[in-house]
Design brief:
Elements: H1 3-22, H2 28-50, H3 64-80, H4 84-100, H5 103-108, E1 132-136, E2 139-142, H6 143-160, H7 166-172
Antiparallel strand pairs: 1-2
């Protein structure tokens, strides 16, 4: 999955959680925490891979051996400051990133590429990229098509929810 799609998925997952558990649309800072959590694996792994520190672009940040403890630590810190929702939102975003990297490998039969889930215990080969899903009317359908649909749906949901987080970003940045 492309990095920007993970941000949208993190938001969608957090929005579903808030509607299910609280009966309301997401609020600003927690929505941003979910997006930051969803960005973390790529913000960690991609630069380290580009710098030659990691052998692949899915390693530390994409491993459940990293994501679960980090989620717990962030939640504990947030809870100790009476900001439980920020910790929950961050964990939802981070774990949504790891989980949503799995389906494309399952659909394409590239099970060996799931090594990132328990890296460094398991080996992670180089990611082979966009996966073909089939052909419709002579046109090859790939995972990028589905990612495009997810982005449109997620941005539409965010807009409908009142663009939570935008005001908070504007309050911090001079835009």
């Amino acid at each position: 999955m492309l990095p920007p799609v993970h941000l949208v998925v993190g938001y969608i997952c957090y929005a579903a959680y808030t509607r299910w558990s609280r009966g309301e649309a997401p609020r600003g800072w927690p929505a941003l925490a979910a997006v930051v959590g969803a960005a973390l694996p790529d913000l960690l792994d991609k630069p380290l891979y580009a710098a030659g520190v990691l052998p692949v672009g899915r390693a530390i940040g994409h491993s459940l051996l990293f994501a679960i403890p980090v989620s717990v630590v962030v939640w504990v810190v947030a809870r100790s400051r009476d900001r439980d929702l920020l910790g929950v939102a961050f964990a939802i975003g981070l774990l949504s990133h790891v989980v949503t990297d799995v389906p494309w490998h399952l659909l394409s039969g590239d099970y060996h590429e799931l090594g990132f889930l328990l890296w460094p215990v398991t080996h992670m080969p180089e990611y082979t990229g966009t996966k073909p899903l089939g052909t419709v009317g002579g046109l090859e359908v790939t995972t990028l098509w589905l990612e495009g649909i997810v982005v449109v749906a997620g941005v539409t949901l965010w807009w409908r929810d009142g663009r939570p987080g935008l005001r908070e970003i504007r309050s911090v940045l001079p835009i």
